[in-house]
Structure prediction request, 292 residues.
Amino acid sequence: MMPCFLVYTVVNLSAKSTFSKGLSILLPIAIAGIALISIVGVQLYAPGGLGISTVQTTQPDQISTATAQQAQQQEATRLKLLKTLPSLGYGNLLADWAFLGFLQYFGDDPARQKTDYELLNDYFEVIVTHDPLWVEMYNFLSTSVSFYQARPDLTVKLIEKGLQSLSPEKNPKAWLVWRVKGVDELLLLGDTQAAIKSHRMAAKWAENTPDQDFAPRLREFAEILSQNPDNKLIRIQSWLMVYGATEDKLVRKRAIQELTELGVKIKYQDNGELRFTIPPEPPKPQTKKKSN
Prediction:
């Protein structure tokens, strides 16, 4: 039986779904938090040491390749230190710090045009190390590392590291991390068996949580994929989910490309939304009965 989220033939999307972390946690006012900042500041601002933020938004004509590369090398050294820096009980603060650096680095298009995105996984290694329970962060991880850095293998590796600390008891939304992992494995790595396992784990972790209604759907998703690893509708549904979960132009362009190759007809409507028409499944060949 086809799961309910695969039965449609036409889908209209104007997705405006974003994942963000409340800014209130970025400026803790606790005395201990300030003390931690002071400790880190001493280590990063020591004479001859590192500036806390060497990455700055630039204009295309204001930066040379050599300058951009030097800034990236300095940032790499800073991130290496943050990976091993003791959290002193404030790991989430260090993770927030790294995330702010990621936003600045990721958003500096002129500098990235001069270099590349090779530090993206380093930012998320810091974040996963110090705050693995931050579930929403894994969506940023997948978008940036898998698509911009073109390293979905590193995404999966970092997710696996985070999952060692996660559980439904610690965060009832933790099942989403298995889902992100499974989608990357299916669509970007082509590891169907790993994707099946990840979706089964997502179903298991969704049980007995406020999102328990998703458990049977995820389990059915995995079952269909296990019966037919080349199932086209499963991949169409997954790419539609990727498209609908982001406004990032690069990711959406990749999703549209993949959907087109899978036979989906895409048309812009007058209201600016996209209309996705999913091709019908080909009829299954009938086995002829042997005549006596």
About this structure: Residues 132 and 164 are 9 Å apart (CA to CA).
